[in-house]
Specification:
By secondary structure, the protein is of the alpha+beta class. It contains 6 helices and 9 strands. 31% of the residues lie in helices and 23% in strands. α2 packs parallel to α3 and α2 packs parallel to α4.
């Protein structure tokens, strides 16, 4: 196969398979990029705040360029199909909340195709929001835990019995 992969194929390759959850994240990311008038972030230009840890987040990472490693993918464990994508350059942000999916398709492939083809107004609600964007990723000095010997970021170090330790050792 020659040429570049489509964004959908890139998301599938990253995630490992195609599924309805991936299709949700794909649609969300496409809508956010279009509405914000931006392309995939090369660095930290965009910030994605996701309110679940479903398959959808993998597509959002691939299409927006936001990741935990760069510090511009923020996870809130609220189990909501809600995603906020913000642009650091102009501080615009878009909150995308999924609407209830219609009953019907039982099979995963049919549901996936339904999600990809669903009219946007039936798929989600969009709202421009003001968003206090998190600071850019910070780098911290690495320290070695005096108990387990593993390395950790200085920001998470604790002191136990006068020794620098990681959080798991501090809480043990």
């Amino acid at each position: 196969m020659c040429g570049e992969l489509s964004p959908w194929d890139e998301a599938v390759n990253f995630h490992g398979h195609s599924c309805p959850g991936l299709a949700i994240g794909y649609r969300v990311a496409q809508i956010a990029l279009r509405e914000l008038g931006v392309q995939r972030a090369r660095d930290e230009e965009l910030v994605a705040i996701v309110e679940n840890d479903s398959c959808s987040v993998d597509a959002i990472q691939v299409l927006t360029g936001c990741s935990f490693g760069k510090g511009n993918l923020i996870y809130h464990p609220w189990a909501k199909q809600v995603y906020t994508i913000g642009n650091r350059r102009n501080k615009e942000a878009l909150r995308i909340a999924l609407k209830p999916m219609p009953a019907g398709a039982k099979d995963k492939l049919a549901r996936l195709e339904e999600i990809l083809a669903m009219p946007e107004q039936d798929f989600c609600a969009l709202a421009k929001v003001e968003l206090e964007l998190p600071p850019r990723a910070r780098l911290f000095k690495s320290l070695q835990c005096s108990e387990c010997g593993e390395m950790m970021g200085e920001v998470k170090a604790r002191v136990k019995n006068g020794q620098v330790v990681c959080i798991p050792c501090a809480e043990a």
